[in-house]
UniProtKB/TrEMBL annotation, chain A:
Keywords: Cell membrane, Membrane, Transmembrane, Transmembrane helix. It comes from Thermoanaerobacterium butyriciformans. It is found in: Cell membrane. The keyword Membrane applies. This is Cobalt/nickel transport system permease protein.
Automatic annotation (TrEMBL), chain B:
Pathway: Cofactor biosynthesis; adenosylcobalamin biosynthesis. InterPro entries: CbiM, CbiM/NikMN. Its main location: membrane. It comes from Thermoanaerobacterium butyriciformans. Forms an energy-coupling factor (ECF) transporter complex composed of an ATP-binding protein (A component, CbiO), a transmembrane protein (T component, CbiQ) and 2 possible substrate-capture proteins (S components, CbiM and CbiN) of unknown stoichimetry. Belongs to the CbiM family. The gene is cbiM. It is a multi-pass membrane protein. Gene3D superfamilies: 1.10.1760.20. Part of the energy-coupling factor (ECF) transporter complex CbiMNOQ involved in cobalt import. It holds the Pfam family CbiM. It comes from the Bacteria. This is Cobalt transport protein CbiM. Keywords: Cell membrane, Cobalamin biosynthesis, Cobalt, Cobalt transport, Ion transport, Membrane, Signal, Transmembrane, Transmembrane helix, Transport. The chain crosses the membrane at residues 32-53, 65-83, 95-123, 130-149, 161-188, 200-229.
Length: 255, 247
């Protein structure tokens, strides 16, 4: 999985995860509070940090930004196009079966704000996930006193996702190479077989995992050594500065 | 005007088949107020689900591993492609299958975990919209699927019908909930919430009805294969009775 690979190999891997989380979330909140200029600034800022500092290839970053694009386009279009009462307020209008559809300036301004805000918040998320491995995020959650059973389920699920992903990929390749997905009927049959065998494998593996853990004195708790990070004051000052600059320029621009 | 309409229809047709890839509400799309409201709305269900899970894990510690695998299974399922009747591809939500296999309470917690990983690993959905997505995909969908399944079985309907209806209606209601969440956050200028809800429903209905049917068919296939090949596991999960009849 693309994002997971980069989260372990980027140049900001050794930065304390709490710093990265703080930076991403504070900026996210600013995106909600302030308007479009702040959002455009955040989009550029996150791109620069992720690409120049964390050395994620720019091509990869842009490709990732395009993933949520279809949802964004369709939802924004739905919000722009409205049923309207009087045509005088509309920029463009169109009659279909006695109903007038149209675009109003207000609709456009809502949609544009929404478009940039979404992209800005998404780029904050990308900064976080591309620089911080899931294991570190789970470690932070541990410090937030989240119930341990929930965290263990998170850890287990994270590890097993890759196991099952591999298994599913192998089954898919072998089915596909035997024309398993050649026709629609075949595809349904093959996919049904794939899912049910994946379920059986999951079940069997979970039993085996339990036996293996029992044999190693498992008493209901999975213990893992977490990586040792150190806070870097320069980074903390940098985060505070950037947030302050964003807040003050946004307030100034508002006037 | 005609040209403009054609252009819109064309773009919609171009985008519509892809929408299934990202039916989760994306990061940052909902205003902060609604993010928090949906977080609060999902919380009691997740807490109840969590308490049921921890009770059963205490009784049977093996279950923890199984739940871990179930979460991973649901994640991988959502990354597979279903061939759709209309020619486009979509991803199964696994809502119906999960609810039938693991019950609606466990699904609320598993769904939350899966949605979190989808946001962190695949950039589907997001952290701010986690509550809203959990509410539609991990709470409404599974509960509806589960009770439809039980209801049809009780009424004496055949297995395949119960499974099919559970999976496809659960799938559809997930999207109705998503439309509801989008409409209530972005009411139309004229007509307010209702107009906006109809707009979102109109678009999602066109794309989601064929997908819900595909998912229903697939779930029937999977359950049939599971009954044929892994009776014992299903009995242990309380999906099957000892004689091999669906509960």
């Amino acid at each position: 999985m693309l994002i997971d690979n980069y989260s372990y190999t980027n140049r900001m891997y050794n930065v304390h995860p709490v710093e990265k989380l703080l930076f991403a979330f504070l900026t996210m909140i600013l995106c909600f509070v302030f308007d479009i200029y702040t959002n455009i600034a955040v989009i550029i800022l996150m791109f620069m940090i992720t690409v120049l500092k964390a050395k994620i290839p720019g091509k990869v970053y842009i490709k990732l930004m395009l993933i949520p694009f279809s949802f964004l386009m369709i939802s924004v279009l739905t919000i722009i196009i409205n049923v309207i009462g009087d045509k005088s307020a509309a920029l463009i209008s169109l009659d279909i079966f006695e109903v007038t559809l149209g675009i109003t300036p207000k609709g456009i301004s809502t949609a544009v704000t929404l478009f940039f805000r979404t992209l800005a918040v998404v780029s904050c998320l990308y900064f976080l996930v591309l620089t911080t491995p899931v294991v570190d995020i789970i470690d932070i959650l541990k410090k937030l006193k989240i119930p341990s059973l929930f965290l263990e389920l998170l850890q287990l699920t994270y590890r097993l996702i890759f196991v099952l992903f591999d298994a599913a990929g192998e089954v898919y390749t072998s089915q596909n190479s035997r024309l398993g997905y050649a026709t629609l009927e075949n595809s349904y049959r093959s996919l049904g077989l794939l899912i049910s065998s994946l379920f059986i494998k999951s079940y069997k593996d979970s039993q085996d995992l339990y036996v293996a853990l029992e044999a190693r004195c498992y008493n209901g708790e999975l213990k893992v050594i977490s990586k040792d990070y150190r806070f870097c004051y320069r980074n903390l000052i940098f985060i505070v500065l950037i947030e302050l600059v964003l807040i003050s320029t946004s307030i100034l621009l508002r006037r | 005007m005609k040209k403009w309409m054609l252009l819109t229809v064309f773009t919609l047709l171009l985008i519509a088949p892809q929408i299934a890839y990202s039916m989760h509400i994306m990061e940052g799309f909902l205003p902060l107020k609604w993010c928090i409201i949906w977080d609060i709305a999902s919380l009691p269900f997740v807490v109840v689900g969590f308490m049921t899970i921890s009770k059963s894990v205490k009784k049977n510690p093996k279950l923890k591993m199984l739940l871990g695998f179930a979460g991973a299974f649901a994640f991988v399922l959502s990354a597979l492609k279903i061939p759709s009747v209309t020619g486009s591809c979509s991803h199964p939500t696994g809502v119906g299958l999960g609810a039938i296999l693991f019950g609606p309470f466990a699904m609320s917690v598993l769904g939350l975990i899966v949605l979190l990983f989808q946001a962190l690993l695949l950039a589907h959905g997001g952290i701010t919209t986690l509550g809203a997505n959990t509410f539609s995909m991990a709470i409404v969908g599974p509960i509806v699927s589960y009770y439809i399944f039980k209801g049809v079985k009780k009424a004496g309907g055949p297995n395949w019908l119960a499974v099919f209806l559970a999976a496809s209606i659960g799938d559809l209601l997930t999207y109705v909930t998503t439309s509801f969440q989008l409409a209530i956050a972005f009411p139309a200028e004229v007509g307010g919430f209702t107009a906006s809800f109809l707009k979102f429903m109109g678009i999602f209905a066109v794309t989601q009805v064929p997908l819900a049917i595909s998912e229903g068919l697939l779930t029937v296939l999977v359950i049939n294969l599971l009954i044929a090949y892994s009776k014992e596991e299903l009995i242990e999960l309380n999906v099957l009775e000892k004689e091999g009849k669906l509960v």
